[in-house]
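Collaborator request log, item 7. Partner lab (contact: R.S.) asked for a structural prediction of Histidine kinase to inform their binding assays.
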Amino acid sequence: MIKFPAFSMRQSIFARLVLTYIIVVIPIILLGVYLYQWSYQNASNDITRATVKQLEYYLDGLNREVEWMELQLFNTVEDGELSKLSATWSLMDSAEQRKSLNELLHRLTSFQNSSPYIKDIFVHIRTINKTVSAVNGVQPFDEVRFHTFYSRAGTNESRLLLWNNALHLSASKQSGNMEELPILNVQIELDSDKLGKSLNQINLYPDSGSLLILEENGFTIRSHPEADGSILQFVQAASATDDNEFQMEMSGRSYHLNKVHSDSLGLSIAAFLPEETVKRPLKTFYNWGLLFALTSLLAVIAFSYSSYRFIHRPLLYLVQGFKRMENGSLDAPIEHERRDEFGYLYARYNQMLVRLQSMIDQDYKQKMMMQRAELKQLQSQINPHFLYNSFFILNSLAKTGDVDRIELFTNMLGEYFRFITRNGEDHVPLSEEVKHSRMYTEIQKLRFSRRIRVQFDELPREMEGIRVPRLIIQPIIENAYEHSLEKKAEEGLLRVTFERRENEACIIIEDNGEYMDDSDIVALQERLAGTAPSHESTGIINIHRRLVLTFGDESGLFLSRSELNGLKVVIRIRLEEENDHV
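Returned to partner:
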């Protein structure tokens, strides 16, 4: 049981805080701040509700106006007289042609005058090579506009199309053959200036402003074209989020922002208002609050100074000590002469550093010794069966007098034993480990070239420099030969592939052996996880332990049924995010 030292009241932080809170009029200050914030919040909420209502009302009206335009647009496309004009143009004499065009122009003019937001209406009639405009009359066929709005018809864009820095509505009349171009296209160009002026109706205050934003591409119409461009950029970015209310600092001023989105139009409307407009009704209250704050300044200074000296600064020393400890520095104790509560904490902190350093040294050394011992154990396990078969192959080659293959085989065998017996390094680049494993499969090909086929993929370049413990791939391949492929009567297959994922590298070894059922795989998985009773410390258990010791618990060997119907072993190596090194 921990015994705390006895503190005198004069040295107690609690006593100092009690004395300080008696002197400082903190409850009154907090009450004044609360009242001011409450009043400001109420005023802000009232303005927000009124602004949101105005924005919703404006969008509803604009949506009804666009729906009416779309109805008239499709009525125009399906107009019988227009269809007759496009179909029988070549059969008409010049008088009938002029009459039909004049009637069409009259309908377009009436359509344009029906809405203040329509700047112009175009009918592009491909079959007569004419474009009729409500403003400019009959003109030669405008291929650019026709192909622009025909090509965008039926796409996933919003109802309002942006082209040439203006919003448009468009519809086409198709011919009987769907592979042909449309007979005609009707295009409505909206008046951006009038849309901008219409935004003024939702500006409740002289200093407020509003913007209409096409969400798909950020096109913006402003009620005040001369508004600060930085405000425009901020509102455009904010409108891309789901929040309906914002606070921001821009060009030395604070702004209050609201926005409403219309899914049907693909539009958002945002209104901004300077914070001083919101705070203007609270100016008198603010002045009284400022006077009260000035009279309380001395008390606040006294409270701040005592808090800093008796609490903040001692606590800061402790926080800095913990930060140093998090960064791995365990040899920087806190020097102190205090005898209060912080003095007790400093002393216990210094004792904790000593104990932690001792425990880390002990645990680290144990892990390193265990890792080196297991590696040495694995290195010492030269498979007698493999050694016997190697000499048998060498004897067979000598009998046939195949000197070239004898030289090749002895070189490969020498490289193989040099790698597994060298003691210089515990970790090697993955490229060397893969090279050794590939050498092992080449040796085995001399034995099983007719019965066992090997698919050994190339190591990706970005994985070559990863440093791994030695002998983590070849023992697994050897296990596949010994327990699965050597016993297979028909053609065997060994496949080694590599995968580079976001924060890890994977080496996948699988075969098509038929001598391991699902229960055997489950038993191996349990032994790797340490849930099965086993004293084995070699083979795949040894490899799995070394990978976990080196790279952490999320690394190691993971077993499953292969698509080839044999065993699939995945060697998973977790990497650091910044440089992809362990």
